[in-house]
Amino acid sequence: xxxxxxxxxxxxxxxxxxxxxxxxxxGGFGIATQSGSGTGNAFAGGAAAAxxxxxxxxxxxxxxxxxEGKQIAGALHALRPSFKFQNKGSTGAFxxxxxxxxxxxxxxxxxxxxxFKMDVNQNWRIGLSFNVPFGLKTDYDSSWRGQLTxxxxxxxxxxxxxxxxxxxxxxxxxGGGLSVQKLRAELTSFAGAAGNATLTADDVGxxxxxxxxxxxxxxxxxxxxxxxxIRYDLKGTANFSRGAALNGDIRANLKVPNxxxxxxxxxxxxxxxLMGDITWTxxxxxxxxxxxxxxxxxxxxxxSTLGTLPFQWKDTWRASIGANYKLNENTxxxxxxxxxxxxxxxxxxxxxxxxxxxxxAAFGVQHRISNANVLDIGYAHEFVRDATINASAxxxxxxPHCLAGSFDNKAHIFSLQYSHSF
Length: 422
What we know:
Porin, 14-stranded antiparallel beta barrel, single chain, 3 helices, disordered N terminus, mainly beta
C-alpha cells in the first residue's frame, strides 16, 4: 500500500475516535435523560426537587428530604433521535452522490437507570445510582456521499455512583458521591483503498460529585450540585477491511467535562409546584484529541501520532422551567420547557453527531398506586436547530473537498419509572 493510502487510513482512525466527543440527548455527548420522574418536567429543578431515589444522582443532599426508610426507583428511557442530511453544494470527493445522502442516521436507543436510597440513622443517608451519563448512536447508509467522515458510531457508557448525605440542620443538608464510569466505542468510516476502518476503544474513569440543599422557607427549596471531570486513558484497536497491514493498537486521552447546577423548587399552593434550573457544563476543556499508535504497523511505529484533532468546543448553559399540578390526591401532571446549547461550531461539526441548540417541550403524569408504589410516565420532544456542516476528512482539505449541507434534526424521549418504598 502506498504512503498516501497509509496516511489517509491512519488519519481516518483518528477521525473515527474523535466522535467520542459527540453524543445524544443533550448538548455535546451528555445524556440528560436520567430519572423517569424528571422527564415530564424537562429536568427543571433537578438539584432541588426531591421526588424519589433518583435524587441520589441529581443531588445526593436531597436524600435527607425523602420520607424515612428505603426506596428504590427503576427507569427505562426510549430515545428516538433523527438526523437527515440535506446536501447543499458538496464539492470535490463529496460531490458524487454515491448511494445518496445517508438516510436517517438516527435510530432507537434504550437507556435503563436504577437508584437506591436508605437511612443509616437520623442524620445520615446512603444511596446508589446505576445510570448512563454519555452515549451516541448514528448509522448512515453504506457508500453515502459522506462515508469518508462517518458510517457507524456507537458509544456506550455505564456509571456506578455510591453517595452519602448528612443533615446539617433542620433546613440544610449536604451530600457527595464517587463515580466509576466505563466508556466503550465502536466506530466505522470508509478508508478508501483500505476499505472500512473500524475502531474499538474503552476505559474506566473516576470522578466525584457534591451537593447542597436548603429549605429556605416552608414552601421554597434551593439546591446546587457540582460534578467533576473524568479522565479516560482510552485503549483500543484499529482494523481495516482491506488493509490488514495497517491494523494495530491505539491510545488517546480524553476528559469529559465538569458541570454545575443551581435549582429552585417552590410550592405555590396545594395544587401547583413550580421549579427552575440552570446548568453550566465546561465543554471548553475539549480542545483537541491526539491519537497515538500503541503498536507498530505498516502505518507507523509505536508512539507515532496518527493525528491531532481540533474541536475548540465552548462552554454551554442549559436553562429549564417546570410545573406540577396535583389533579387529585394520587395523580400529578408534569410540564416542562428547556433550552440546551450545543458546544459545537460549524468549523468542527461532523456527521458523527450533527449537534445543535435544542429546545425541550415535556409532559408527564405521576400516579401513586399505593403509599409504597409510584408510577411515572414522561415524554419530551426536542426541537433541534438545523445543524450546518462544512466538513472534510483528512488528508483532504475543505476547500476543495467539502461535505456541505445541513442536518434536519429532532428527537423523541419516552420514559417510564417505577418507585417502591419499604
